[in-house]
Amino acid sequence: MIVHVLKNSAHFLKPDVLRLLPIFVAIKKEKRNMKKNSIRAAALACCFFMLGCRQAPMQSQSSEYDVLTVATTDRTIPVDYSATIRGRQDIAIYAQVSGKIAQVCINEGQRVRNGQTLFIIDQVPYKAALQTAEANVAAAKASVATAQLTYDSKKELFARKVVSQFDLSTAENNLLTAKAQFAQAEAQRVNAANNLSYTVVTSPSDGIVGTLPYKVGALVGPSTPQPLTTVSDNSEMYVYFSMTENQLLNLTREYGSIDNTLKNMPDVQLRLNDEAGRIEAISGVIDTSTGSVQLRAAFPNPNGLLHSGGAGNIILPYVRKQCVVIPQAATFELQDKVYVYKVVDGKATSAAIAVDRISNGREYIVNSGLVPGDVIVAEGVGLMREGTPVQPKAQKAAAP
C-alpha cells in the first residue's frame, strides 16, 4: 500500500527518496515469499502426519458378540392362500312359467325356510287352463264309458252271431281310442295343475335371500336371463382355494394318496373367522391355464358371520420336521442372496445360505448352507466385515 502511494506521488518527492523506492519494493516481495513458504511448510507437515498415521499398523481387537449354535427343530409354518367363500347351497330361483309378478313375499337378506313362499305370479290364466283340462278329462272319461258299453254290447251280440267280427273289432278299437284320449286329457290336466303350482315360487331350502331385481308387475318367465333371487344356505360355508400342482404333489407324497391327505391334513383357519375348518374335497382336474388345483374347505357358520360371495385367506399349517431355523437378525443380504457370518477359528467368515421365508417376519428356515453344530454371529452382522475377530458373549442354541 505504501509502495503504491509512493509510486503515485513520485513527482512530489525529493530525489533521495526516489532512490529508496526500489528497496521498499524488494522488501515487500520478500515478505510475500516468506508467507507463501510458511504455508507450504505447514501443508507438507500435515500431509506427512496423515501419511504417518495411515501407515501405522492397526491393532486388531476382538469384540464381543452374541452367537448361537445351529440346531434342528420342528416348525409349523402357516401358509396363506387366497380364497372365495360360498354358501353350502347357492340356489338361483327362476320362474318356471311366464307371467307378471303379482306379489313379492320376502325381503332382501331375509332368512327363509324350505317351502316358504317367495313370489306369486299371476294365476288367472293358469287357473282357467286347469279348469279346461279338468273338463276335458271329464269328457274323455264319459267317452270311455260309452265306448265300453258299446264294446260290451257288440261282444254279446257277436256271441249270438248277430253281428260280425268286424263290428266287434270296430267297437273294441273305439274303446281303446277313448281310453287313449282320456289318458291324454289326464296328462294335460296334470300339466295345467303343475303350471298353476309354479305360479307360487317357493324356497327349495333354508337360507338367506339375495337381491330382488324384479318387483311387482314385472314380466318374468323361464327365459328371463337374471334369476328372481338367490337363496344361500349359510349354515355351513364352503371356502375354495387353489394350490400349485407341485404343492399338491408334495402333500400326496407325504400322506400316500389323496384320500389319506384329506384324512390327515390339519385343520385350516379362515382369516375372517375364528372357527376351524376341514378340507373336504380336492379337485381331480388341474386348471391348465394356471397349473393349479382347487380345494374345498367347510366351515361352520352358526352366527351367520360369513356371507356367500365374500373373500378371505385360508391359513394352512405346514409342519417342517427337523429343520434349521435362525433369526433374520443374524443374516444380511447382498445381491439378492442371504448370508450369515460363521465363527471359524475365532473370526467371522461369511457363508451364503438358501432359506424359506416364514410369514412371521422374524425367522428363516435354512435349506442349505448351515448344518447342526455351526456357530454363527447372532447380532450386529450388518456392521461386521470378513475376518472380524469374534469374542462370544454367550453361546446359545438356535431358537427351538
Distance between the termini: 85 Å
- DSSP strand content: 35-45%
Largest sheet: 6 strands, antiparallel, barrel
Q: pLDDT below 50 for ≥5 consecutive residues: which ranges? A: 1-18, 23-27, 43-60
Descriptive overview:
The protein has 400 residues and is an alpha+beta fold. The protein is 34% helix and 36% strand. It is built from 6 helices and 19 strands. It has helices at 2-8, 15-55, 124-159, 165-198, 245-255, 258-264; strands spanning 63-69, 72-93, 99-104, 111-112, 117-121, 200-202, 207-209, 219-220, 229-244, 268-270, 273-282, 292-300, 311-327, 332-334, 337-344, 347-357, 363-368, 375-377, 390-397. It has a 6-stranded antiparallel beta barrel with strand order 2-9-12-11-10-13. β10 (268-270) and β11 (273-282) form a beta hairpin. α3 runs antiparallel to α4 and α5 (245-255) packs across α6. The radius of gyration is 50 Å and the shape is elongated. The two termini are 85 Å apart. Residues 1-18, 23-27 and 43-60 have low confidence and may be disordered.
